[in-house]
Amino acid sequence: MTLTASVDTTLTQISAGTAPGAACSPDLVEKPWVFDLRAPGYGPGSSMGDVIPAGSPRQGALPAFYREADAAELDRRILAAKEALGDRLVILGHFYQRDEVLAYADYVGDSFQLATAARERTDAEAIVFCGVHFMAETADLLSTDEQSVILPNLAAGCSMADMANIDQVEECWEQLAELYGTEPDADGRVPVIPVTYMNSSAALKGFCGRNGGIVCTSSNAQTVLEWAFERGQRVLFFPDQHLGRNTAKAMGVPLDLMPMWNPNKPLGGNDASALKDSRVILWHGFCSVHKRFTVDQIAKARTEFPGVRVIVHPECPMPVVDAADESGSTDYIRKAIEAAPAGSTFAIGTEINLVQRLAAEHPEHTIFCLDPVICPCSTMYRIHPGYLAWVLDALLGGEVLNQITVSDEVALPARIALERMLAARPPVPTGV
Ligand code: SF4
């Protein structure tokens, strides 16, 4: 099915029986503030079955005015605030955000593109990040002390980022130090280099900065692993096992040298010899959006659309990446579609808001999501124009709500890990 309306509109139509299709939760047609006051949880969508950690930020009640305002009133207030604040404000919107929010974004991109935009807009006093918590933290790391980063709904976390916390990673690190020691080998390579995916808390980026490690994105994971293997005998990769496994496998690392670390078990559930032989230790984390894609969906797409080009995100499980024609970041997917000859057919394995938007932007192609069930990212879903209007109205009144601040103690080493990533470059090819 090729869909071109926004995901919100499509969900409403499905719920009303005026459009075909299925959603993973009937609650997706509710407004997200319905969930702010319920027991902690990620809310409807792909992460609704995941366990939210105790102590995750809670939003609290959105004032009644913003809950009750219709779309036209919210639109009027948001545009008025943007007009009044001018260059003092920049609104960033992630690719996976709902169209109804992205309509107001000054920049739309992936998490790192948006953090870079935040760094470049030093004239903006307020950076309103319509994404999730770790992205707002990264924007705070890369922006100046004078700028405020605002997350319109504090419940917009990330279930994958929450799967590795600093206490668990410190505990893992101690166990590995006991097993391997800390001395480098004859080639000067230390026993383990920690690598964290951008989709992690600032505390984990800080951990990497303090311990000779580095950050990666889904665009540069191979370059970063090459950087790490030059300096270490093995890598501890967190929190996304799939990005780690898919990347290392593509580099030729055998699967049996990639044990999984379960933080709830001694030695991560491994025996010491498997850890000693390992090249990449994979944290037991995953993205519930990308875990939904299957090899069967790809087979079905190929049967129904002979010649279809299947592109999936590297956060998908390895069998799915192996069965696809290509895998790549959101930016890779976007550029592949832009570069294709008119009349191409794409089956895409990434978040539905982006896929549906790409389908709408490229009527010259047939573009559809591999997963026939509409199941957006639960945490991106928590941002809605109501929250955006609320934080912008407050800014107009001189009040900064929902500010995301990373302490200096964490920020200094986290920036080191990010700078290492920016400095890491693919090896220069030799020969012809
Ligand atoms: S798509 Fe996955 S990794 Fe991205 S914010 Fe949602 S849960 Fe986190």
UniProtKB/TrEMBL annotation:
GO biological process: 'de novo' NAD+ biosynthetic process from L-aspartate
Gene this chain is encoded by: nadA
Entry GO terms, CC: cytosol
One protein family per Pfam: NadA
PANTHER family: QUINOLINATE SYNTHASE, CHLOROPLASTIC, QUINOLINATE SYNTHETASE A
Pathway: Cofactor biosynthesis; NAD(+) biosynthesis; quinolinate from iminoaspartate: step 1/1
Reaction equation(s) it catalyzes: iminosuccinate + dihydroxyacetone phosphate = quinolinate + phosphate + 2 H2O + H(+)
EC number: 2.5.1.72
Enzyme class (EC, first level): transferase
Cofactor-binding details, from the entry: Binds 1 [4Fe-4S] cluster per subunit.
Cofactor: [4Fe-4S] cluster
NCBIfam families: nadA (TIGR00550), PRK09375.2-4 (NF006883), PRK09375.2-5 (NF006884)
Full protein name: Quinolinate synthase
